[in-house]
Amino acid sequence: MFRSAVAAAALPISSEGINRTHLDEAQAIWEVNKIIGLSYMGDEKEVIRRIAIMEADDEERAKGHDSHPLIGS
Prior knowledge:
Layout: H1 2-10, H2 20-35, H3 44-62
């Protein structure tokens, strides 16, 4: 789990609207998914980044704004 946390910390926080909270939530979601047996054959950082984008999108929708530009509506 420590290795995953370090990987999440290494992810860039950029103009994609992802902040540290989104990355923390994405990391937690990914860890739960692994515990229940879900897996992904690919780059774990990319999975966490995509979850973080969805978290940012959810936050924007909750505020009544359009969806995240990288995901679409």
